[in-house]
Design goal:
Distance between the termini of chain A: 45 Å
Number of helices of chain B: 7
Structural class of chain A: alpha+beta
Number of strands of chain A: 8
Helix content of chain B: 40-55%
Radius of gyration of chain B: 30 Å
Largest interface: A-B, 68 and 64 residues
CATH architecture of the largest domain in chain A: Alpha-Beta Complex
Order of helices and strands of chain B: HHHHHHH
Number of helices of chain A: 9
Radius of gyration of chain A: 32 Å
Helix content of chain A: 25-40%
Order of helices and strands of chain A: HHEHHHHEEEHEEEEHH
Oligomer: heterodimer
Number of domains of chain A: 2
Structural class of chain B: mainly alpha
CATH topology of the largest domain in chain A: Nucleoside Triphosphate Pyrophosphohydrolase
Shape of chain A: elongated
């Protein structure tokens, strides 16, 4: 700050100091101004289902299961199944199927002439499918889409004639801390119908851009990003945002301006 | 789980060792009149014998273990190749994960450096570590004035701790899917 340096170099005398300060004040319009602070929230929907194993992983797990089946310690059958019970017969039948699957159809342990067919009457056995209807329709507003990936909230900003996708952002009031500002701005921008949590107090990234308000090249706006998680609910379009989408990292790249992407991609998870 | 180098290799514990594992097998060899077979069954499954007088290091193998193992493993060289391929795969996964963590950390470090330059007070506040057990006087006042749902919300989110709603990924999604109609 050249003005303050100038003031310091002045003589100690009060008159000179006052002169110096007046001079500094008159220089104020040319001194670099404090950049505006903004805070944005990278709202993440964590993966709901585990990663799909690759073909190699699946084959390896099957291989290891075969080895374990060959080598494992004796299973206490008579502890778990009462001898001669129907449950034991059912278990033996299923075990034979599993053995054949592991070692081949011609691998015969013992002949069994049990012909009693027991019907399984389990009501809620069928689990929900991993690929949901949202995956089929590719609905980007649906939070059930892409269960194994991290989804991030992107918001379409249509103010002042510009139309771009970015993370929900707002200004920091003076005296307000970053994480408090983030929480407030998230409810202001996206509605309070979401169960969210801002992770800690520290920002995870920052992005500097020209302030949209003035054309002064020195006046930049620094946006600090804070990470948040959503656990339930949904974002709502308000007057500040016209549209929103929950996107994976690769999908964000295609929607967001190039320099914004380069500045924010390191904060996001690949998986 | 790796099969031994040679199936006939024997792992014998020295018979004169008075290890603590002896204590757990004190009941194993007990011959008792089978008054109640259930008790016998229970004792056998809870206290398996670890007397090593068989070829197997872990316990009684299935009687056709050689046949089964020959089916499971194509050959010694094939097994070693599979092991190495798996370890390589794990290594690659580890590198990928570490790279991503490094990128994220670098982004955070740059952001904190920038914050320190821009606003030292905010920087100091961001670095403050909060004790989840403590309550500031302002919070105590606020909690006295709130009732019901807002109070619960305030009490549930302790600073510095993970919220309860964080869920581990499972193999299949929940039956009802995402909860949309959530009220604060």
């Amino acid at each position: 700050m050249s003005a303050s340096v100038f003031v310091k170099r002045c003589q100690v005398g009060r008159h000179e100091q006052r002169l110096g300060q007046n001079f500094a004040r008159s220089l104020a319009t040319h001194a670099p101004q404090k950049p505006r602070l903004a805070v944005a929230v990278v709202l993440n929907r964590a993966p709901i289902i585990a990663k799909t194993p690759t073909k190699f992983e699946r084959a390896f797990y099957k291989y290891q299961a075969r080895i374990q089946r060959a080598l494992h310690n004796p299973f206490p059958y008579d502890f778990y199944f009462k001898p001669g019970s129907i449950l034991e017969q059912q278990f033996n039948k299923e075990e034979r199927i599993r053995e054949r699957k592991a070692f081949g159809k011609d691998f015969v342990t013992e002949e069994s002439s049990s012909s009693i067919e027991v019907e399984r009457t389990d009501e809620d056995e069928v689990p929900a499918p991993r690929r949901t209807s949202a995956d089929e329709t590719k609905d980007v507003k649906d939070l059930n889409r892409q269960g194994s990936r991290n989804l991030y909230l992107l918001v379409r900003d249509s103010t002042n004639g510009k139309d771009e996708w970015r993370f929900p952002k707002g200004n920091v009031e003076s005296g307000e801390l970053l994480h408090e500002a983030a929480r407030k701005q998230l409810t202001v921008q996206c509605g309070d119908n979401m169960n969210t949590w801002i992770v800690g107090r520290r920002p995870i990234g920052f992005f500097e851009e020209q302030s949209g308000i003035s054309t002064d090249p020195l006046l930049t706006e620094k946006t600090f990003f804070l990470k948040g998680h959503i656990f339930a609910g949904q974002a709502q379009t308000q007057d500040s945002i016209s549209d929103f989408a929950w996107l994976t990292k690769q999908e964000i790249e295609s929607r967001v301006p190039k320099d914004y992407w380069l500045g924010t991609k390191d904060m996001l998870s690949d998986l | 789980m790796r099969p031994p180098q040679s199936i006939t290799a024997v792992l014998r514990t020295p018979s004169s060792s008075k290890s603590t594992s002896r204590i757990f097998t004190r009941n194993a060899g007990r011959k008792v009149v089978a008054s109640d077979p259930q008790n016998e069954i229970l004792r056998r499954s809870l206290y398996p014998s670890n007397i090593r007088n068989k070829e197997t290091p872990t316990g009684t193998w299935r009687p056709d273990v050689m046949k089964a193992l020959r089916r499971a493993i194509p050959s010694k060289q094939a097994h070693e190749t599979i092991e190495r391929a798996w370890l390589l795969h794990e290594r690659h996964m580890r590198w990928k994960r570490n790279e991503e963590a490094e990128r994220k950390f670098e982004s955070m470090r740059r952001a904190m450096a920038e914050l320190e330059k821009v606003d030292p007070i905010l920087f100091k506040e961001a670095n403050r570590v909060e004790d989840p057990r403590k309550r500031t006087p302002a919070e105590v006042e606020l909690s006295k004035s709130l009732r019901g749902a807002p109070k619960k919300a305030m009490e549930s989110r302790l600073p510095g701790l993970f919220p309860r709603e964080m869920r581990l990924p499972t193999d299949t999604p929940p039956r009802e899917g995402w909860v949309y109609n959530w009220r604060p």
